[in-house]
């Protein structure tokens, strides 16, 4: 059994990204603009689609079905996380915090992915399923962001802008 260093490095990078995302959602932060909410999912979608396109196994037949199932599950769990994220007012602006239910849904996402991929680990489908992680993260984060954005818009409380004059350094 040979270990491909690029695959290991990619797995470590994805794991680090996932830990960073979950930590930020669990700890909480001020709600960002809709544009900022969708940047990471869009970047992950582009990277993931490139990886899927470069996969040695074309997305046909069972591989396409499995990836589609994974994307639907990821989007549903992301939408649920967006619906369960708590919105509160802090310093006059809307603040989002995931809490334990959102953390549980992240764990469910990982378990669902492992359960879907594990039976095909030593088959010709493995490369296509392995390369779908970025697209899966894009689907789950995109669905979460869209549901959260709809809730923020319906809420009507102020969202803190990205420009903060107190941090400007031109006058220094």
Structure description:
The protein has about 170 residues and is mainly alpha-helical. The chain has one domain. The protein is about 65% helix and about 5% strand. The protein has 6 helices and 3 strands, in the order H-E-H-H-E-E-H-H-H. The protein has helices spanning about 5-25, 35-55, 60-85, 100-115, 125-130, 135-155, and strands at about 30, 85-90, 95. Strands 1-3-2 form a 3-stranded antiparallel beta sheet. Helix 3 packs parallel to helix 6. The model is unreliable at about 160-170 (pLDDT under 50).
- Helix/strand-derived category reads mainly alpha
Helices and strands, in order, run as HEHHEEHHH
Q: Could you say how many structural domains there are in total? A: 1
Would you report the number of β strands? 3
End-to-end Cα distance: 59 Å
| Biggest sheet overview | 3 strands, antiparallel
Q: What's the overall geometry? A: elongated
Which strand order spans the largest sheet, edge to edge or round the barrel? 1-3-2
Helix percent band = 55-70%
Please tell me the overall pLDDT.
Answer: 83
The stretches of 5 or more residues where confidence is low (pLDDT under 50) are 162-172
Number of helical stretches of at least 4 residues: 6
Rg calculated over all Cα atoms: 18 Å
Which band does the percent of strand residues land in?
5-15%
Set out the fold topology.
Layout: H1 5-27, E1 29-30, H2 34-54, H3 62-84, E2 86-90, E3 93-97, H4 99-117, H5 126-130, H6 133-155
Antiparallel strand pairs: 1-3, 2-3
List the defining traits of the structure above.
172 residues; disordered C terminus; mainly alpha; 66% helix
